[in-house]
Amino acid sequence: MALIKEENIDKIEIVGNGIIQVRQVTKILEDGNELSSTYHRWSFEPGSNVSAQPANVQAIAATVWTPEVIAAYQAQVAAQRV
After folding, report:
1. DSSP code for 24
2. How far is CA 15 from the centre of its chain?
3. Among 9, 46, 65, 68, which is least packed by CB within 10 angstroms?
4. Could you report how far apart the first and last alpha carbons of the chain are, in Å?
């Protein structure tokens, strides 16, 4: 009876304003059978520092966060503060 803990990023989403949402699943397995799973989510605003994130998250940010996307997001945030 071997218990194994697996952690994987199973979902990366980009929402309309350029925010990247990441979901990590943690599974507890016993002899290959899943006993439980839990999820942890976090998100990044356009232009955020993602250097500590996995390579796939960094690559998506580098592709999606063009200067135009970052400027539009910042303008949207500024407009909401008024």
Report:
1. E
2. 11
3. 68
4. 59
